[in-house]
Backbone:
């Protein structure tokens, strides 16, 4: 049985496009609705109550498009809101914490894992708790990197300022001899080249995108909800933002490797 309804993805901004890219690769027949809450990015410094409110509004927006599954492509929202959202909505909702933690545990050899993210994600200890649940003996070292999201949103991916900030944040983790680093924010993969230079070639970098896309595939397959109707006419992905569609489209090209023909601004708040 096929289900041609779209998959919904939301993020605080452009970072979730790293997840979208993997979903497009692993689920090539699916239509996708992507919403970037660019008017209210970043989520990281905001309170748990505010993030939950934003996440609820984002899901209600996606439900207007009759989505069959929702991916929260935002670590901050996943870390503080996922459990509540799962209780309030009937359709499958996937966060990015669990898949990233599982991959980090699989990759580490010396049982010393670093986690970087927004202040809210790190304060929630969501990654640490999930990693410890899988493998209690692993040491987890966490570091908030609040300037990373603004750098990515500005497109400052390889400037001297960016390199200095990355080095400043990651030196404490480097001293802990981590061999695996969880990029606990979907914006951070665009900083991978700089992060690799700071940490060296022997540290595995984990972002959840591939694992999240695989999880979505298995959930839809098990529920007989996969689409086999590849979109022949019109765009496969519909992009919506709450502000600055032109800037989103420009940054989106860096994330996805192709131009975003139409990004629609919506006023739903």
Residues:
């Amino acid at each position: 049985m096929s289900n041609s309804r779209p998959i919904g993805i939301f993020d605080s901004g452009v970072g979730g496009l790293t997840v979208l890219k993997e979903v497009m690769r692993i689920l090539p027949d699916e239509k996708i609705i992507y919403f970037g809450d660019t008017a209210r990015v970043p989520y990281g410094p905001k309170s748990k109550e505010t993030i939950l409110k934003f996440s609820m509004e984002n899901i209600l927006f996606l439900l207007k498009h009759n989505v069959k599954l929702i991916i929260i492509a935002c670590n901050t929202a996943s870390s503080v809101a996922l459990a509540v959202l799962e209780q309030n909505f009937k359709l499958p909702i996937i966060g990015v914490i669990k898949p990233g933690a599982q991959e980090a545990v699989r990759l580490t050899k010396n049982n010393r894992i670093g986690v970087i993210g927004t202040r809210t994600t790190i304060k929630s200890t969501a990654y640490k708790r999930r990693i410890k649940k899988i493998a209690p003996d692993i040491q987890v070292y966490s570091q908030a990197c609040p300037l990373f999201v603004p750098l990515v949103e500005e497109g400052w991916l390889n400037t001297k300022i960016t390199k200095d900030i990355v080095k400043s944040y990651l030196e404490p983790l480097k001293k802990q001899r981590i061999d695996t680093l969880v990029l606990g924010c979907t914006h951070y993969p665009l900083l991978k080249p700089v992060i690799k230079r700071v940490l060296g070639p022997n540290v595995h970098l984990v972002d959840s995108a591939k694992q999240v896309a695989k999880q979505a595939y298995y959930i839809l397959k098990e529920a007989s909800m996969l689409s086999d109707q590849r979109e022949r006419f019109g765009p496969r992905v519909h992009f919506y933002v709450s502000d600055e569609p032109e800037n989103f489209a420009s940054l989106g090209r860096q994330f996805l490797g192709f131009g975003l023909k139409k990004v629609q601004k919506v006023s739903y708040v």
